[in-house]
Design brief:
single chain, 68 residues, mainly alpha, 3 helices, elongated
């Protein structure tokens, strides 16, 4: 029973971390420095964020599938 409890705790923590990852996005300085157009920079950042959310959601679904 202890292994199940520990694994459930670990899975909950992984889901929490994935949800937290969707809240923040770290942008490398070279992307900001190299892009001259604010509109293009905004599109790049939006694409990076959308990919982060997609990856986090996929990870959450995978972790939840382990519980079944």
């Amino acid at each position: 029973m202890k292994i199940t409890t520990e694994s459930m705790l670990y899975r909950r923590q992984m889901i929490e971390m994935a949800n937290d990852a969707k809240q923040f996005l770290k942008i490398p300085a070279n992307i900001i420095q190299n892009e001259k157009s604010d509109a293009t920079l905004g599109r790049i950042i939006r694409l990076m964020y959308e990919q982060r959310v997609k990856d986090a959601d996929a990870h959450i679904e995978y972790i939840k599938s382990l519980e079944k």
